[in-house]
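@channel sequence for tomorrow's demo:
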Amino acid sequence: MKKINIKDLKSGPMQREELPPKLEKWANSIHKFLGDDLIGPYERFEAGFCRDQNPIRELFVWQTIASTLQAWEEKIDCDRAEIFKQLLSFSISGEAVKSTKISLEDILSLKQLMIKIKKELLQEMIT
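structure tokens (generated this afternoon):
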């Protein structure tokens, strides 16, 4: 697997002008939970899905991030932005980013929780 620096990523062309209503609702729900402070304005968030050839797959990734963050926050008082950064890194590269705010033990637990939630979400989608 080739590693890509996130700073080198470029936006692709628009694949559609807008999301279908169900996907729009899903994107809006994810954005409401994560908020502008973590992922920027909704319009930019939605535009990313309009550029994606498979917005359902991308929405699933974001749903996994949001659901994992929510589950983590329910059990541990944490730095939301730092946990989000780890989850985003896991979803992009499968690896953690260096952190002075989260212990290695918690990073490993967070990754295991993300894997568990991803499996649960997949199961929900296929049943």
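heads up for whoever presents: The chain has one domain: 18-126.
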